[in-house]
Amino acid sequence: xxxxxxxxxxxxxxxxxxxxxxxxxxxxxxxxxxxxxxxxxxxxxxxxxxxxxxxxxxxxxxxxxxxxxxxxxxxxxxxxxxxxxxxxxxxxxxxxxxxxxxxxxxxxxxxxxxxxxxxxxxxxxxxxxxxxxxxxxxxxxxxxxxxxxxxxxxxxxxxxxxxxxxxxxxxxxxxxxxxxxxxxxxxxxxxxxxxxxxxxxxxxxxxxxxxxxxxxxxxxxxxxxxxxxxxxxxxxxxxxxxxxxxxxxxxxxxxxxxxxxxxxxxxxxxxxxxxxxxxxxxxxxxxxxxxxxxxxxxxxxxxxxxxxxxxxxxxxxxxxxxxxxxxxxxxxxxxxxxxxxxxxxxxxxxxxxxxxxxxxxxxxxxxxxxxxxxxxxxxxxxxxxxxxxxxxxxxxxxxxxxxxxxxxxxxxxxxxxx
Length: 418
Description:
Helix content: over 70%
Shape: globular
Number of strands: 0
Low-confidence stretches: 1-11, 26-36, 141-149, 257-261, 414-418
Number of helices: 15
Distance between the termini: 53 Å
Largest sheet: none
Mean pLDDT: 77
Strand content: under 5%
Structural class: mainly alpha
Number of domains: 2
């Protein structure tokens, strides 16, 4: 009888999530649609702004030309929602390629390249923007209701993709940290992970409000804040990933559990884990809120947006529950190895993305390296600055791994000589 009750209790979160999803679906299908296509005109305005920057550059007004390129990016491409639309309807890789196109034009102007080079880069970017505007227009016309607007279903999908894209990495980090504390018998410390998440949600809302009503930060300032947050997350995740590697050896871990768990999970390390959770959520939190605000402003379909957001939350919650439930079945050594590798991968990816955000904001120079491939999955971009940071991270991890193996070998020799 007791076993049956436990099984029912363990199934309750899933049942609640499924019912919540059904309610959201009914809410979504009851909402009409009424948004108009405008991407062609947005692409045209960007093209005109880039042409003005070329005229300024030809006239020797380098600083003004660079500012005009930034205006085309922040005040039109980003502010009008084309950046987000391309990420949703085409691909995030395509969005990043266009962002690098703007950065490449700014770099050519800053470096004093020949006018022909600037002309070539502008033509390449405007051609891509025109193609993407056409693709976005086609996507807008093939709606559920056959009109030229965006259907409630499309808006729902847009809202769903936003929360999944922005939240998936965060939920992986949180799941890994919670699973780690659970495996080490420190369930009492799990609350600090949740505290970090809740603090990040509050900070995200506060930051979004400040962006809109108090600070009126420019697009460049928002990119810079996101880049700084990503680099902070990189540092914390790198530290946590190495710390987990040092506990990977099963025998050492069991000894660690018996004798040193309280000391090792002292205030400093708990703060690091809580900080990792905070930064994982906060790094995209404020921007996600602004994305939803922009989506609502362009569609006015609150029900569909709420439904899409809700579906995404349900999906992320299921990922969290699955990781938390099944991670306890993985043997200690593989568990720590996989968790450490996951956190290091995210740190490596965040490093490249953080540098790219600061380059888009104009805080860091952009030096294009044509032979470096663009691999969005790993945060690798054809930029010398980003690659240098990631190369340093690889070197640091190799040194750390070498130190760990050397320490392990010395421990084996010491045990053999006793």
